[in-house]
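note to self: dont lose this again. the chain is below, predicted strucutre after it. 147 aa total, dont forget to put it in the shared folder this time
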Amino acid sequence: MQKRLALWLLVPLLFSAGCATVPAPAGRSKHAQALAAPRGWVMQTIPASRFPLATFLPPAITPAAQLTLYLEGDAMARIGPACTCADPTHIDPLALRLALAQPAGAAAYPGRPCQSVFAADTCEESLWTALLRSRRSCQRPARSSMR
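---
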């Protein structure tokens, strides 16, 4: 009986410890900017109809017959099995790395809603967790926009 009780007390503690190890959203956004800086790419915030979008663009934009867009996946909808994420900004933006590594041609990295730029009035956790069973959030972003 005591072993069972100890297990019930230990399991939630392990899940919450996993949630605590995720870098803060501002740090994740700064990481993306640090990846882009050596190539001269800069982050720009584009006002869209509902969400501001964080995009990364090369230093010179020249007209081209073909433009390659690198789109991220769902990012951080979940932190662990018991936690949803209150801000979906990637820890390591793979698509941005691919865009930066493109050897030739025009490329751009348009951000996804609520990633890298968090708009407190429109970014709701339910937008990226609607189909997930757990609604427990392990992390709450500041109520101001990150830039």
